[in-house]
Hints:
Blueprint: H1 11-15, E1 25-28, E2 33-39, H2 41-49, H3 52-61, H4 64-77, E3 84-90, E4 94-97, H5 101-104, H6 114-121, H7 126-133
Antiparallel strand pairs: 1-4, 2-3
Helix pairs in contact: 6-7
Amino acid sequence: MTVGPYWPPERKHAENGYQALALPIDEYAVPPFEMIEDWTARQFIGYIRSWSAVARYIEARGEAGVSEFEAELLAAWGEPTERRRIRFPLHFRVGEVRKPASAAAGMPLSRRGSGAILRFLHGLPHHVAKEHARPR
Length: 136
């Protein structure tokens, strides 16, 4: 089963870490992030079945290819209740929104674009946000 052709065109942005998107920001370097889960074979199959590309594949070609993939996965997995570590890379682009030169003139550097950073930091744990919100 190959679902590549069944992804919407926008999927390419996730695959390339959103690097092709032109954003009006001065970017910061972001360390690698990943989400880690310990899943059973059924949990992993449920995740794969949640993909929009799999739904489009089934609509176009039927269930047979997906069922065959699941059978092969279960055979390779071993004990289906055994938990295996699954790693998902997470991609971020972080930065300050660029202001027009006329708007930023006369404003201290530590204040320029701080609203965008604070909006981003709002979702972080308080101690992390507090550390990163300090003017440098």
